[in-house]
Structure formats: structure tokens, C-alpha cells
């Protein structure tokens, strides 16, 4: 269910196809997430970074994932990248994508166009990433790691609760349990199965 109500089924299909083709080409993973808001539990940036590591977006040992989050109520876009793709997708490139491809569309109320344009630019940048799946790779383990995550309210706040529970008494976060082995999350009709990348390397965001 699209609680943010910004993506149609046809747009989700288009995004799935783009990201599926990228994953098949070089193993890079992109997760596209839309949420109603992240406040007051966490800032959009804080939520994006922790969700990125909690899901383990990207291949374990490769850290070649990207999390593209849109928080409609907060009017914020956040993009988190893994350490393994920092040369291919540095922060200045991410900032340029946000400010020239996504935000202008969002300011006009064209949310679908902005999400598609942003995803397309991320895919284009990551196509140059060099990575081949090894012979020991298990069939199915590296299948389509794309997520159009439209979080139902209960699951949305449930994830917040999990992330918030990792906060220590001094207000910092304990990284134990984030990343590592693959994890499954049942979000409505979708099962998210990442192999454990995470390890955030860079991030950027913008508002509209």
C-alpha cells in the first residue's frame, strides 16, 4: 500500500525494471523508499542512514548499495550510498542528482517524475561500476534486490521502534546488529531480502 500516495503501479514497474537490469549487470543494489514522514522519531537523514545499515542494502563485503528515501511530510529527499561505490557515486554526484533531477520535479508536485528521474540517474552512474558475481554465488541469492517500499503505518513505526531501541543512554547509536547476515522484512505484499551490505559511505539530501 502506497501510504505516501506518490507512486502508481506503472511507475513501480518501471522502477523495478530499471533497477533489476542494473543488478543483473553488475550486482549493484538500489532500494527506493517512500514514507509519510519520519519526524518526530528521527530526522529523515538519521532514519535513512540507520535503515540503510539495518537492511544491509548492498552485497556483503562489497557495500555496493544505495537507499533513495522520500519523506513526503518532511518534504525531504535523502540518498545514502555504500562505501564500496563512493568512487562511482561520490557525494557531489548524489547532490547534483538531488538538486537538478529530483527537487525541481518535486517542487512542481511531480513526485513520480522526480522519483523516476532520480532513480534513472543513479542507475546511469552505477552502470560503470565494475563487479561480476563469483562462481560460488548461490542462484537466487543475488536476484532482484530492488525495493519499492511503501510502508504500512504499523510496519513503518515498528521499524522506527527497532532503530530507536539501538540508541544508547548518551544518545548515540549502537551499530551492533546493523548489516551482516541477510534479513527478511514483510512489508505488506513484499519480502525484502538483502544479503547484508550496508556500511554507509556517504549521504546527501535536500528539501523542496
Nutshell version of this structure?
By secondary structure, the chain is of the alpha/beta class. Helices cover 36% and strands 21% of the residues. Residues 132-152 and 166-195 have low confidence and may be disordered.
Molecular structure report:
The chain contains 5 helices and 7 strands. It has 208 residues and is an alpha/beta fold. The strands form 2 sheets. The chain has a 5-stranded mixed sheet, sandwiched between helices. Helix 1 runs parallel beside helix 4 and helix 3 runs antiparallel to helix 4.
Structural class: alpha/beta
Q: Would you give the CATH topology?
A: Diaminopimelate Epimerase, Chain A, domain 1
Side by side, the strands of the main sheet go 4-1-2-3-7
Rounded radius of gyration (Å): 16 Å
Contiguous uncertain segments of 5+ residues: 132-152, 166-195
Helix percent band: 25-40%
What is the N-to-C succession of helices and strands? HEHEEHHEHEEE
Strand content: 15-25%
- The rounded distance between the terminal residues' Cα atoms is 24 Å
State the total count of DSSP E strands. Answer: 7
Number of domains: 1
Shape assignment: globular
CATH class: Alpha Beta
Number of helices: 5
In this structure, how is the largest beta sheet organized?
Answer: 5 strands, mixed
Average pLDDT number: 74
Oligomerization status of the protein chains: single chain
Amino acid at each position: 500500500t502506497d501510504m505516501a500516495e506518490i507512486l502508481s503501479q506503472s511507475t513501480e514497474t518501471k522502477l523495478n525494471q530499471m533497477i533489476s537490469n542494473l543488478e543483473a549487470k553488475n550486482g549493484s543494489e538500489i532500494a527506493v523508499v517512500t514514507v509519510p514522514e519520519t519526524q518526530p522519531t528521527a530526522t529523515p537523514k538519521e532514519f535513512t542512514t540507520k535503515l540503510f545499515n539495518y537492511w544491509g542494502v548492498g552485497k556483503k563485503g562489497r557495500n555496493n548499495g544505495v537507499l533513495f528515501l522520500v519523506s513526503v511530510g518532511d518534504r525531504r529527499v535523502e540518498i545514502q550510498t555504500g562505501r564500496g561505490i563512493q568512487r562511482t557515486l561520490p557525494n557531489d554526484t548524489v547532490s547534483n542528482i538531488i538538486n537538478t533531477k529530483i527537487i525541481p520535479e518535486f517542487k512542481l508536485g511531480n513526485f513520480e517524475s522526480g522519483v523516476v528521474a532520480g532513480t534513472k540517474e543513479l542507475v546511469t552512474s552505477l552502470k560503470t561500476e565494475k563487479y561480476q558475481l563469483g562462481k560460488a554465488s548461490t542462484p537466487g541469492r543475488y536476484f532482484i534486490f530492488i525495493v519499492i517500499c511503501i510502508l504500512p503505518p504499523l510496519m513503518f513505526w515498528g521499524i522506527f521502534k527497532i532503530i530507536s531501541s539501538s540508541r544508547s543512554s548518551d544518545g548515540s547509536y549502537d551499530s551492533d546488529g546493523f548489516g551482516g547476515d541477510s534479513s527478511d522484512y514483510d512489508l505488506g505484499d513484499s519480502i525484502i531480502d538483502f544479503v547484508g551490505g550496508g556500511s554507509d559511505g556517504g549521504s546527501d539530501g535536500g528539501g523542496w
